[in-house]
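Appendix B, Record 12. Input sequence as logged:
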Amino acid sequence: MNSDLEVARKAAREGVRTIKKYKEKGINIEQKGFHDLVTDADIATEKAIIKVIKEHFPEDEILAEESTAEDQLKDSRTWIIDPIDGTTNFAHGFPMYCVSVAMWEKKAPKVGVVIEVTRDEEFTAIAGEGAWLNGEAIRVSTKSEHKKAFVGTGFPYNDLSLIEPYLNLFRKLMQELQGIRRPGSAAYDLCCVACGRFDGFYEYSLHIWDLAAAALIIKEAGGVITDWDGEDRWAFGERIVTGNSNTHTFLLKMIGEYIPEEQRRVVTAEHSH
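Logged structural output:
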């Protein structure tokens, strides 16, 4: 047994229990930004997850959405936590929201756990050893023709200057793909790529805690993950495109044609790894 993965699973499960407790008793919602919500359940869940991790690894670093001032990643062992990925869904009683827990070392993912709370689906991965859904091995799809591809996305909400080119790209993809969905939880979307439900996924404005666990799950399931320039700067660049190799190549090509170069670039070079 991988002890890091077992602790990640234990911490994530404690997070799920906390979310369900708050859902039963009612939640308080606050605005972090115009389109960005936080609930008291997010904060309590994050604390519960961190408590489990610190009981086992008191010296490890923590990078968490609600309590970490900066999203700088160190070389040392770092647990990256999103207590509720899909908070807006959760706050409105809409399904598809996840607990995400990952451990990175030397700026690379080592273990990852994503649990979709409403369906109790547990996605896990260990670097170099594979990816699983509820204990069963998973792989990305083998679909090669983009006309038959089923793809997930999200919409830009913190940089509205990207709306026009994003919608131009979206319009084109509606014509080229079999279907596009926007479930509202990036961690879940990425796991859907990993298990072959989606053939690909692209989004702008994601943070490291949204994808720290799910990106490893995709990689271990045989998927490709890059930024919008096809480079390995996806972790802090806020631009991600992923899928099986064929769908990834097609999405990257479309992004290159419809998104201006200056809007495809990573936000800060210092965050690249």
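Confidence is low (pLDDT under 50) at residues 269-273.
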